[in-house]
Amino acid sequence: MTEQNTARTPFPAASLLGYPRIGRRRELKKAVEAYWAGRIDAGALDAAAKDIQLSIAKRLQELGLTEAAAVPGTFSYYDQVLDTTAHLGAVPARFGKLLNAGGQLDIDGYFTLARGNKEQQPLEMTKWFDTNYHYLVPEIGPETKFTLASTAKVDEFAFALANGIETRPYIVGPVTYLLLSKASDDAPAGFAPLSRLEDILPVYVQLLEKLAEAGAGWIQLDEPALVVDQDTPAVEIQAAVARAYEVLTAAANRPQILVSTPYGSLDGQLGTLAATNIDALHIDVFKGAVPSAAALAALGNKTLVAGVVDGHNIWRNDLAASAAKLDELTAAAGRVTVSTSTSTQHVPHDVEEETQLSQQLRSWLAFSDQKAVEVKTLASYLADPASAKAAIDQATAVIASRASAEGVHRADVRARTEALTAADFTRSDYAVREAAQEEALHLPPLPTTTIGSFPQTSDIRSARARNNKGELTDDQYAQLMKDEIKRVVELQEELGYDVLVHGEPERNDMVQYFAENLEGFDVTVHGWVQSYGSRCTRPSILWGDVTRSAPITVEWAKYAQSLTSKPMKGMLTGPVTILAWSFVRDDQPLGETANQVGLALRDEIADLEAAGIKVIQVDEPALRELLPLRRADQADYLKWSVDSFRLATAGAADSTQIHTHLCYSEFGVIIDAIDGLDADVTSIEAARSRMEVVHDLESHGFGRGVGPGVYDIHSPRVPGEQEVTELLATAVKHVPSRQLWVNPDCGLKTRGYAETEESLRNLVKATQTVRAGLLEAAK
């Protein structure tokens, strides 16, 4: 550590690793989407962003985080990894010259990388570690140029400081950034983005120097990739970490450096970071174990920032257990401060706004604001244990009351899961099912379908809101939804689709809709969290044993099927995705909860079959999301997650075609698990990654129906007929055509009707072209 740094401000005793950045009422989402639509200009967007930044900083100070650098500067217009790409100027060559004459990436160039344009698809998107947040994957090659192309972090810091608040700027650390990157299309085989470490470090140094000049006392560099078992050998990663922080800490003028390592245990990388000259190290000791005394002692005079409050879920902290962990840490380490295990961007703002929830349930919960108070309480405990006794005792009492509350444990539900046998998880051989389904469905080669949802128009959302307020009766609302279903069915018939969907207009969200109709759940009103970009969701709260008291989707599916002679898909959300996109109880193994949900869905499938539905899709887009970050823990997860899906679907008749859908995952990592689901047809994201997944399918020998997506619905661009034709031609080269389906990457809920109709029309035309080629080749 340089002499200059030793006299600087200590790291705050209490801080969060990050905070929700979309605004308490999704102000950022509304401003960004207004800018995209041309309703506001860049100046108005900047003003809205500044209002959000300042309101966050002031709110955290109100909650007691008043020390310098206690407030994290984690604002982003879209994504923190994209922000890092922007700061490094790492624009893929395929986008052309997005940097302006001053060498900067302006806001329009930034959004072009995120959303694409008419000529270029956007950066690929995938899940951020084991969360439901999506990041934009950098594309790095040997020729990628790096330059400080953005000073947004400096500007954000200076703005807060001018308003009397010294924040802690944040950016993704260099090792994690490169480990999360993919090789660009023009990179040679075997190229590893990590090999460009020496080239990006000077840009990081420039950023550190500019922050120091602006008055920043601390910077947070996020290195969560260090808690994951990587394909890159550990020794290479250790060398990269050592080199990166050798260079960064040697900068002549820099803020003090906090390296944060959320989402799990550092394990062997703890010693690597301890040997560097960083000033503070954050470790996740909520999900990870408390390191050994020897490992902690090796930190020397570095501040240990202890993530003892869960930043990833919404349950009230067991303050007594956290205090015990802090006692262990302080016994072996030097200075210890308190923080969250992860950024609280993964939880809503404030549970006190959820007045429709029972007081009992609210007492069990802690959203981001409550977590700030918990962090502050535990920091007080470190300073004076007696000062926190009342709060610790209260938390202990609430946790005890939760365990005995009505509905948390139900004898009827548990008796059913305990009675399960191997037969409940097994269908007939696929060859038997395939023959039965061919006879029942009579589908052409390369059958076309969509994933489920159609655009949710303002009229649909308005009708739902009016029904909730009592301005529309249930019968009036149901008729409006039927009108929309009829419109969607007629559109698919006109376009020439083979297997239809009803469009799901009655569903506010693919998980919340089921949560509202299953016992053991509650839903929020203001509990929004960011999924990606401007896309926000309200995760439901799964607090008790789960059961289904009545059919949920049957009447809608039955009505839709009555409108067409073509097969209509019944649409369900799978057990793993319901868990992944909810805040799930933490008092029992996830596998037990997944089986409860699986049995509820099994009952729904039986009722759909009885209503004449021959194709049923059980979506599992989150299968990859919950995969543990350490390989030693993955087999157990894959066993119970696959089993819960099979439990839901194994009761179906051989002639009932079971579909599933997965999106934005590294499919090669879990291809065995996807195969193990034993679905008859699996639709998967493939357009943005330009059909990369077909190589995994080919090498694995995947033998059932599969629909690699040909239309990226997470971008507003319309794929042309030729583009879709080329994607299908690639798929046909690697997967037998008899197995292939043609479909978009995901549901169409977030798109508009004009772009959707044009895209779907191009999809059908491309399919017809490829079908004709297959028939000609077969002559």
Question: How would you describe what is shown here?
Answer:
This protein has 779 residues and is an alpha/beta fold. The protein has 28 helices and 21 strands. It has a 7-stranded parallel sheet with strand order 1-5-7-8-9-10-11. β13 (529-532) and β14 (535-537) form a beta hairpin.
Counting helices, strands and paired strands, the structural category is alpha/beta
Compute the separation of the termini in Å. 75 Å
Taking all Cα atoms into account, the compactness measure Rg is 26 Å
Oligomer: single chain
| Largest sheet properties | 7 strands, parallel
- What's the tally of helices? 28
The average pLDDT is 95
Percent range for helical residues? 40-55%
Shape: globular
Low-confidence stretches: 1-6
| β-strand amount | 5-15%
Layout of helices and strands, plus pairs?
Layout: H1 3-6, H2 27-36, H3 42-62, E1 71-73, H4 80-88, H5 107-115, E2 125-127, E3 134-136, E4 139-140, H6 152-162, E5 167-172, H7 174-180, E6 182-183, H8 197-214, E7 218-222, H9 234-249, E8 256-261, H10 269-274, E9 280-284, H11 293-297, E10 303-309, H12 319-332, E11 336-340, H13 359-363, H14 368-383, H15 389-403, H16 411-418, H17 430-441, H18 458-468, H19 474-495, H20 512-515, E12 519-522, E13 529-532, E14 535-537, E15 540-547, H21 554-561, E16 569-573, H22 575-580, E17 582-584, H23 590-610, E18 615-619, H24 634-649, E19 657-662, H25 671-676, E20 681-684, H26 693-700, E21 705-708, H27 721-734, H28 753-778
Parallel strand pairs: 1-5, 4-6, 5-7, 7-8, 8-9, 9-10, 10-11, 15-17, 16-18, 18-19, 19-20, 20-21
Antiparallel strand pairs: 2-3, 12-15, 13-14
Helix pairs in contact: 2-3, 6-8, 8-9, 12-14, 18-19, 23-24, 27-28
